[in-house]
Amino acid sequence: MHRYALSGLLILLVAACDRAGESASSLRTDAHSGNKTLRIAVIPKGTTHVFWKSVHAGALKAAQELGRVEIQWKGALLENDREGQINVVQDFVAQAVDGIVLAPLDSTALVPAVVQAREAGIPTVIFDSGLADESVTVSYVATDNYNGGAIAAREIGNRLDGKGNVILLRYNVGSESTEQRERGFLETMRKEFPGIKMLSDDQYSGTTPLEAQNKALELCNQFGDKLDGFFSVCEPNTMGVLGALEQEGLAGKVKFVGFDPGPQLVQALADKKIHGLVLQDPVAMGYESVKTLVAHLRGEKVQKRIPTGEIMATPENMNDPQIKKLLDPEQAN
Amino acid sequence: METALLRMSDVSKSFGATHALSCVSLEARGGEVLALIGENGAGKSTLMKILSGAIAPDSGQMELAGARYAPKGPHDARMAGVAMIYQELNLAPDLSVAENVMLGQELRRFGLVRRSAGHTRVRQALELLGRTDLSLDLPVRQLSVADQQVVEIARALVIEAKLIVFDEPTSSLTQHDVDNLFRVIGKLKASGLAIIYISHFLEEIRRIADRYTVLRDGSVAGSGMLAGASEGDIVALMVGRKVDDLFPSVPHTPGKVVLSLQSLAGRTTPKDVSFELRRGEILGIAGLVGAGRTELLRCVFALDPVRNGTVRVMGITPGGTPRARILAGLGLVSEDRKGEGLAQRESIADNITYSRLAPYSTLGWLNLRQRRAVVGDWMRSLNVKARSVEQNVEQLSGGNQQKVALARVLHQDAEVLLLDEPTRGIDVGTKSEIYRLMAVLAAEGKAIIFVSSYFTELLSVCDRVGVMARGRLREIRPAGAWSSASILTSALGVETST
Amino acid sequence: MTSFDTPAALPLAQRGTQLLRTALGPFVALVLVVGVFAVADNLQEDGGHFATLKNAQNVFVHSATVAVAALGMTMIIISGGIDLSAGTTMALCAIVLAWFLREGYPPSVAVTAGLGTGCLAGFVNGTLISLLRVVPFIVTLGTMTIYLGLGKMISHSTMVRPLPAQIPAWMHELLSPRVQQEWMVFPPGVWLLLALAVTVSAMLRYTVFGRHVFAIGSNESTARLCGIHVPFTRIAVYTIAGFFVGVAGLYQFARLTIGDPTSGTGKELPVIAAVVIGGGSLSGGRGSIVGTLTGALIMQVISSGCTSLKQPNHIQEIIVGVIIVAAVTIDQIRQRRLAP
User: Going by beta carbons, is chain A in contact with chain C, meaning 3 or more pairs sit under 8 Å apart?
Assistant: First the structure.
């Protein structure tokens, strides 16, 4: 039995080791002040994508500017694990944090958890993706995803002079933000570019670049010879499609618009393999979310809906300072 | 007379409170075969482990070729020139003969294995063993057990062993292969190696060994030249008492026929076996390993598929599943206690009652208290030594395990007991208890089939003895009409005539 | 008779130590993990939230889904098998349940269908293993993706979202950490889990079937020799385990209120881990329900503790991994010590 004690000690050790790094990871300002430090839990959809690291950076920046705010950053263990995200929210409710900033993995499944937080007196700001019941949240900080899809449709439509064959590769079922982009793209195409035909608009890429690449290869095999334009709705998805187009020798020939940047995607933009990247502002998303939540906690009135803007980067404009900043946003480590 | 190659003096080893070896001294000489004899539990395997470096003795000295010998591990022992040939062979089945022989001894140059030079060494070794017919490139998996043994011996030669220890090497060999093995051992002896040959088959020992040392209860009971010793002398040394006391006699008389087989045939063995067994009768089945005795019992118990023939128990033909055979009144004690006979990790209570839980069950729920009481009674009546009925079987000695296996068939109230090598690997005292139990059961009207490779016990315990060879039941005679020699002739007879 | 005492005199003490050896080991580990986190949490300046009733409720609620599936997995592992399809079966059951609700069937029908799906999936596993004589690892590796595919087929690869009105109130309450009646302390789903655990535990110990499960896991040849119907027992084990996976599907649906075809992917691993931490042996013959529950709780306590100590996810993952390896190692050392 004493060997169990041994493993217990081990846990203590591992935990202790990491406490050294803790002060760096959770930024605590103004520890000397007598005022209470606000503890804000920030819950992303995932923890590994670059996008979320930028959100984290924005949240930390806001905390630093505001003072007396501590950010607790934690996502579900598995990507796309809705149950896991519910667990994280409930854990933070038990921790009695002062407020929650959440990017819900599902528009309905997370509602009860947010309601529970509210009943415990913990307000929630939603970012990135919407929640089915907005009455239980303080504010929704996000890109106008519908508009993001619409400007992508215009970019492709204009580059094809209003005629040609286009594929839309969807992301994953139940993801509200990408569904908005998909809808914006399709509706704008239909309305403004009647000469453009959708070859495929019902395929889902899955959540990883590899799955997306396989799916995109299937589509290229099927439609490759008559394909003129391609829209992919988020970063892993765009990575996969880029890989597929390169493999099939279609990169550069097909007018390809993606969503969100990444080092390889920016390079591909410079190489004119990608003709447009819809840029969101993740840093602003994290920054505005925390700011809004703290304002609410301090009794100020906040807006119910805060757009963070979306803009099209193209090979032509990618060196403009404003675009450049968004193509390589700062990241938390 | 030459001096000893290996000399052990006053070697002792204890495990906790048990003295596995106390003050054992023995000598093995070059060009001689020393037979190490003893019942299971006498300390042979501990002695082996000390020799092979697997464990260190608590006290005592060992000398090899005049130098102190204190191996730190098996590899150390091999390097010093002591090779072991175990019952279970230690070969890599998918490597070739040559690769196995050279395993760990590969000749290298620039980090590469020099195959051809290695092959030469292997060929020399096989030549010495008179087995140049073995193909060097054949995967060992495709060899017979006997040929695999030759590969092991060749491996010992390649490391230039001075002493080779054989641990019951014939237990899984046919008579023909035993003869071959003995020829090989003869050659090793002639080339000047010292050999320790562990066995309890006295017939074998007489054929191959020059001298003997008998171990009993961890001490040397006696040693000497075989030429001057009678079989009775050695057995008396092994068991520590007169042979007659070993087989208690309880009078019993055969009654009505309870089991009858008609032309029973399995997938390969047995072939066309017919006989009748009566209440109160003990029928012995003798034969060599592979003669089909185990398969016969398994066919009767419906554990192996039956190709042909019928089994009738008390006049009716039961269904073809072990469950049906149990209900019909049959009970089987397996020869393989670890692999089949007992669920080693489960308790004594479970193992005794697995085949008949019904008495303690109401709508599937068990009355554990009642079961504990009944199991306790069985343990007492069979004198099972254990801490409690809940103790795991794996913690018991071989003899007590065997009693648990026997208790199961008694608990299930079997009328016909099929006992496959029930005395293998257990101590003499327990053997004697089992012989008595069998006689008592027969006197109570049970019928018993007793399969054994030890002819002496068959002749002493059974009413009738049948001999099997090549899957066929050759003949059944009253025990008094057999001798060890005539059983062996009968068991071998078919083999030589085909 | 020297070393054998009368069976009536000894068992109580004997059973005591045996229980100590088997179930209490992981239990002590649980107490230790809780203790370590509670102390560490109290030491940090804004701590004090770990050792609270609220957090205990969370831990039980969060581990309930894995724990209920692990009840069945314990039986399977004791019988010498494994079920890699437990995760995807869980999602399939939730999908079926959600589908029936969305199509307007009464909740009783939907729940029955969900549980039935679990039983059927388990039955198929058991039958394939028994009839094809393929090792459980391979069979369930195959059915794992088959059930995932079936789930996607039924759901058309999307979420099955019943309307809020179609989901009965009790299902919302089943695993909600907001307990309606305060005297209940835990939501009904946790109590149901405990009741099921007691039932399975008693079944394993006090029924003929339970003894047979141990027998085939400990030594299948012995089981055959003793006339135990091995294929029947095995199919029954997998079917009953399927039922518990169905309950896990119900639990998952109750928390998500949607049927998600991918929600079970990877969930079989914590389920198996719970059994292993609790002393189950993958070579069969050993495992206990108390141990399994403890194992599931340990993993969740670590998760919750890491949140309260503001430890990132990777620390949590490393600790759980260390615990699994430690549990198995300790078990083996204990086995070696017990061997003669």
Answer: yes
